[in-house]
């Protein structure tokens, strides 16, 4: 990976002055990714938080070519752009190397855009898809998505007398992407920027389709003070709620193992969306979350040892 001093020479390819919430991890994720990709990059973005706050007509925060498409189409659009590029390059109309990145939130990736993403991965287009996963439909009112974790309060899985938050476990989209047998898949966190940026570099250099799922803490939907975004992004990793790993040519590898065990309660109690779990009648849900985290971590360790 190039040294940070070299990367910063690319400048801010996502400028300041956009209208993201204070403490939004999505803008941090995009800036970190584009710092690696550089100015010779074309991106697509589906409807969602980052599109809404960075492309308010007639302004844009993007200093690269960007195509905004509907919720379900970011992967389809970037595959079409990449195909056009290959045709133009073959004809000699374009000579330089260009990176292709699609950005999407969890609503437009786990749910609405999954079919287009799966198709683009299966066809083998050379592009990187980055999901900034804030674990709900934050842009439209904090509704649950299939990325929303078990027990979380959202406006469509409200914690109360009827249900204690979302009743289902989150979808494991990272492993779904890996099941497509593509060259590179990874999970990352903006709290471990060096790990994330190395993964972006690997993904762009792999020669085929790649996918990185990045946890994206949201002060509004997760209900915490904005200055704690990076602390919570780190806690997600330290508690093994969000393992950092990669799947390179089918080989799993954990890229960060917490030095000290941090119990999942530390992650949960830092967020208002889980406050109801600490009531006596709901504490069994914390135990269930802990058991599921341990099960998934043990499974990941087994995969990484083969």
TrEMBL record:
Domain Thiamine pyrophosphate enzyme TPP-binding, chain residue ranges per copy: 47-214
GO molecular function: oxidoreductase activity; thiamine pyrophosphate binding
Keywords: Oxidoreductase, Pyruvate
Highest taxon of the lineage: Bacteria
InterPro entries named among the record's database cross-references: PorB-like (IPR051479), THDP-binding (IPR029061), TPP_enzyme_TPP-bd (IPR011766)
Pfam families per the UniProt record, alphabetical: TPP_enzyme_C
PANTHER family membership: PYRUVATE SYNTHASE SUBUNIT PORB (PTHR42897)
Name of the protein this chain belongs to: Pyruvate ferredoxin oxidoreductase
Species in which this protein is naturally found: candidate division WOR-3 bacterium JGI_Cruoil_03_44_89
